[in-house]
Amino acid sequence: MIALSLAEIAEVVGGQTHDIPDPTVQVTGPVVRDSREAGPGSLFVAFAGERVDGHDFAAAVVEAGAVAVLGTRPVGVPAIVVDDVQAALGALARHVVRRLGATLVALTGSAGKTSTKDLIAQVLQRKAPTVFTPGSLNNEIGLPLTALSATEDTRFLVLEMGARGIGHISYLTGLTPPKVGLVLNVGSAHIGEFGGREQIAQAKGELVESLPKDGTAVLNVDDPYVRAMASRTKAKVIFFGESDEADVRAENVRLTDTGQPAFRLHTPSGASDVTMRLYGEHHVSNALAAAAVAHELGMSADEIAVALSEAGSLSRWRMEVTERPDGVTVVNDAYNANPESMRAALRALAAIGKGRRTWAVLGKMAELGDDALAEHDAVGRLAVRLNVSKLVAVGGREAAWLQLGAYNEGSWGEESVHVSDAQAAVDLLRSELRPGDVVLVKASRSVGLESVAQALLESGAEGEVSAR
Questions:
Q1: CA-to-CA dists, residue 153 to 31, 41, 128, 282, angstroms
Q2: pLDDT tens digits for range 409-467
Q3: Would you say residue 135 has pLDDT above 50?
């Protein structure tokens, strides 16, 4: 964080100082909410949760070097006491962002946010110091913590914004007002909470409504809900996508033999060839979104193409492709799932596993509301249409719908299997996998299927694989 004294912070957040002998002492380190991350010069934010109360760790974080605690009560060590810790954290982030000379880029969408954010960050880092959201910490706590990690030399601040209801993104943009706003898509993620795509579009569009007149809205021209957001902003609009109307587009899109996308990138400033290190054709749209942002921030087509071609995956469990010593390839995409990302992952599996035996180990897609049965059934059917060799549906009712969709799609579906939990899936795979097989693991985060991928990788290291 930029250096601020405890007195300044107390004034910004409207708090009272307690047990602080010298209010001029500065916070020079990070602002953290995990006591294990506290270190010299840090500020510890004490949240009181259902199971753990951060205030209980106050003495430990100060001993570790934290300058003070931001909490709701005195804790016997230097502290700034406020009525609402979350509101105070947001106020501090808003203050710091206003003082920074950085250009703030915000993005949202139903699918691909984290992968696209990672691409944008890796491209912009070629131009100037860039701070960006770690993983998918995109809510009312994670976003201000990311903003507060910026320093005086930060030139680009890239923030992922999530929403679970109307008004959420408006709140986030109020804390960290963006200059460039990117909307990727409007899909089915959280549709059960929102009530429909129109409501999701309303929420996502709050991002472009927040942009200043001299800002830029970067919109997916191929998504009608996103394209319509052009009328909701006073900022400049730049479109990306496959349409000829896109300002930033891709031509000659293809997949390499290993399932990695290659294409000719076209921007208003020129064209250049891209061959990505990431897996799956869905990353082309993510790359175009990143390219559009980078173009608006002054990078040439050649610079963008080189950066996209060298960019890797920065966040865990998102299309992580690992080959075991026995030749079994594990594709760990278990961080989360919705219908759009499920379809993209299955198509990537089909491309990566061309000419090999493929396994789709799939689980529940959460928060789909009344659409849950139809969407799970459709994913099971798609697996058959893509000639995925084996479907292993993991879990309860939703997994049964996946398996039923595969079964009803055709005779191949009779080979699909429904198992009760992750351990049952691991046991099945350990007995059935053969060298050269490709295994995709994907479900909503709550299912915990990353444990299946981890077990398979550990098995490969120990040489546990069937030779049949």
A1: 17, 18, 9, 34
A2: 876 656 789 999 999 999 999 999 999 999 999 999 889 999 999 999 997 655 444 32
A3: yes
pTM here? 0.88
Alpha-carbon gap, residue 334 to 320, rounded angstroms: 9
Strands 417-419 and 390-394: parallel
Q: How many residues does the chain have?
A: 468
Q: How far apart are CA 401 and CA 349, in angstroms?
A: 21
Q: What dihedral angle (degrees, nearest 10) is formed by the CA atoms of 236, 123, 338, 209?
A: -20
Question: Among the listed ranges 75-79, 91-95, 125-129, 403-407, which one has the minimum average pLDDT value?
Answer: 403-407
pLDDT per residue as tens digits for the range 266-283 = 999 999 999 999 998 889
Q: Measure CA of the first residue to CA of the last residue in the chain; give whole Å.
A: 56
CA 300 to chain centre: 26
Predicted confidence (pLDDT) at residue 154 exceeds the cutoff of 50: yes
One-character DSSP codes across 14-61:
T-EEES-S-TTPEE-S-EESSGGG--TT-EEE--B-SS-BGGGGHHHH
> CA 412, CA 281: separation in Å to the nearest integer?
25
Residue 330 makes CB contacts below 8 A (sequence gap 6+) with 320, 321, 322, 323, 324, 439, 441, 453, 456, 457, 460
CA distance readout (Å), 354 to 28, 230, 436, 437: 52, 40, 11, 10
pLDDT on residue 317: 77
Q: Which of 281, 181, 269, 277 has its CA nearest to residue 229? A: 181
Say if residue 387 is exposed, middle or buried (CB neighbours under 10 Å; 0-12, 13-18, 19+). exposed
Q: Which amino acid is at 226?
A: V
* 247 touches 240 (CB < 8 A): yes
Residue 278 CA to residue 118 CA, distance in Å, equals 11
Count other Cβ atoms within 10 Å, centred on residue 19: 15
Question: Do residues 10 and 24 lie in contact, with contact meaning Cβ atoms separated by under 8 Å?
Answer: no
Which residues are within 8 A (CB) of 19 and not within 5 positions of it... i.e. 6 or more apart? 74, 75, 76, 77, 78, 79
Q: Which amino acid is at 138?
A: N
Q: Which residues pair with 220 in a beta bridge?
A: 240
Angle at 312 between CA 311 and CA 317, to 5 degrees: 150
Backbone φ, ψ for residue 377 (5° rounding): -60, -45
Within its chain, how far is the Cα of 353 from the centroid? 25
